[in-house]
Amino acid sequence: EKQMIRTYNELISIIIPTYNPPLEKYKRCLKSVFDQLYDNIEVIIVDDGSNQKVRNFLSTVNDKRARIYHQDNLGVSVARNRGIEKSHGKYTLFVDADDYLDKDWLVKSTKYLAKNYDIVFGRVIECDDSTLKSMLEQHYDYAEKVYDKCSMIEVQKMLLSNSSVIPRLPLFSSLNFGPYGKLFKTEIIKNIQFPVGIALGEDQVFNNTVIKKCNKVV
To answer: Fewer CB atoms near the end CB (10 Å): N or C, the chain?
Structure first.
């Protein structure tokens, strides 16, 4: 199988907040992270007060690139904030416990980082167990567009949009307003926190705070 040429070699931090995920999906998630063709990663797992079954499983994770932190159940925002605090990579990727990364996701995404983008937005596809395999076998044409400080308002509109209210532009149809599916320049997010105590929309608050500090995204 032909692999993409790797043009970037900096450390990437992958932050995975964890609270009682279904174990099979969680195992699939972690395997997809550790099996990335881009291997210069640190995987920061923040266990947000999970049950003993999950904690027992985490004790079996022995990849040297993984660091696991346990805390009381304080919420996903606190877990992600702790992950940011512990990260050392030049860029940071957030992964939820039921996410699955295509094995060359990081290779495809990091090819843009030599150009010093502040955020690389990647494609996100929602699927269930029955459609996952067929989704991964499809070949997609990847649109590519660069936004600078002047055109960043379009990205903000995308992040704030609700597809049932505001029709999405075709280019944004496979993007999302969550923190996942994006590579963030770590120096930009180091002093930005996910708001604690907000049950819904904390990710939109975070993303739009970050966007205001960006000069160029792709």
So the answer is: N
